[in-house]
Structure formats: C-alpha cells, structure tokens
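A student in our group prepared the protein record below, which I am reviewing. Here is the record exactly as it was handed to me.
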Amino acid sequence: MTIQTVFLIFPSPLNSLQIQLPLTTLISSLPVPSALASTSYLRTTRSGPLSPCTPLSELIHEDAPNHPITLHVTPRLLGGKGGFGSQLRAAGGRMSSGKATNVDSCRDLSGRRLGTIKEAQRQAELLESEPALRAQAQAAEKAKLEALERKLGINAAESSEDGSKRKIEDVDLAELARKKHKFEDNKFLEESREINDNVRSAVSAALLLKKKKKKEKEAKTGGGEKGKEKVVVDEKAEQVKKAEKDRLDMPPPVTAGAATTA
C-alpha cells in the first residue's frame, strides 16, 4: 500500500495540517473538522470543487508521483436571491439610452466636419433673414419715436399751416415747460423723504456731539483755573500768617527815654 503525504490548507486563522494517508483514501474520509465539512469543499490548486468520492490516487502529479498533494479547504459562499441578469439588462438599457447625440466632430464623405457644415448653414440663414431683422429694428425705432412725440404733446392731428406734420424741433419748449405736469412717482418721493430725514438726523447728532465735547472741554479748563486760583490764595494766606508770626516773635523796639536813663 502506497502512502502519500497530504497537506490540508484550512482558512485563516486555522493552521495547516500535514498527514500521511494511503492513495485509496477518499476525499470524504479526510480529517476535516465537522464545523467546516458541511460549509466547505476541497479543491486543489488547479482544480475546482472535488467530489467526496474522489480517491487520492487521482490527485497524484503525473510528472512527480512522490510530490505531496495539497488540498485547500474552501468555505462555501451563500447564494443570493438572483435577478442579476435582469439588473445587467436594465443597466445596458440605461447605457444605450444615454448615447451621445453630438456628432459635430465627425466628418462626411468629403472630409468636412459636420460642425463646420452646420455653422455655414446657420450663417447663410442669418444672411437671408438680415433684411427682415433690419425692418423689424426700424419699426421698433419708429414706434419709440412716436411714443416720444406723444409724450411731448405732438399728435398726428396737430399740423402746421402748410399741412405738414410737426417735428420735435418745432416744439416750443418754453410753452411746454409752462404746462403743469403731475409727478406721480411715489417710490421716488418716499426715498427722497427718507434721505432728507437721515441727513437731518445725522447733522443733529453731529451738532449734539460737538456741543457735548465743547462742554467737557470747558469743564476741564474751568476746573484747572479754579484749582490754580485756590493754590494762589492758600499761598498768600500762608505768607500773611508767617509775616504775622515773625512780627510777634520780634522784641519790642527800644524807646529814646529808656536809652537816656541807661
């Protein structure tokens, strides 16, 4: 009976196992822990899951019969709920619907880019519509001029003596200025009133601050002068007291009669 060396590689953190078994041993007879036997399968480095009825003799290397057999104990992965194919199809549909529609960088059979051709067509259409755009601009300018004439009091019914329509240059501005115009911009009036109130408040605050500073300055100056006057008065009183004391301490003067008697 031939004995073969078998290496059992367990998942981490379990240690590997080296055993000596006869070649007639089946895969199901290998010493795999019961906790792993039901949730794992055995495989070699170059094969898929092995059948439990596979003997070790079928796993010998043809080139090196004495080479040890290495078996990996691989845990089984629980299957999902399915639906992966439908998810792939949905993703493919979304990818196909989001294809780029900008083909301006492509070229036609003559080698011109499609973007250049579209730009040339756009320029040609613009040149064709230029007269219509110019007429539209002239009509808008004419309407604006008529609105200005109506605002200045120039009506179509008003005509000069020769029957021609009055022009803006013929309007008497002095007469137009004498007319009374009602100003009805309430927003402007409110803003103007608010600005005036703010200016008055700012000026009043500045004047009050100036008066306050002036009073404080006068108070400081007046207090200093009063202090100086008080010091001068005290010095004079001290001098008077000293002079009076010196006068009292002096001996009485010698009279003429007393000098003759002596």
Notes: The beta strands are 3-9, 17-22, 40-43, 69-75. The first helix runs from residue 34 to 37. Helices lie at 34-37, 84-97, 114-128, 130-151, 173-178, 186-249, 256-261.
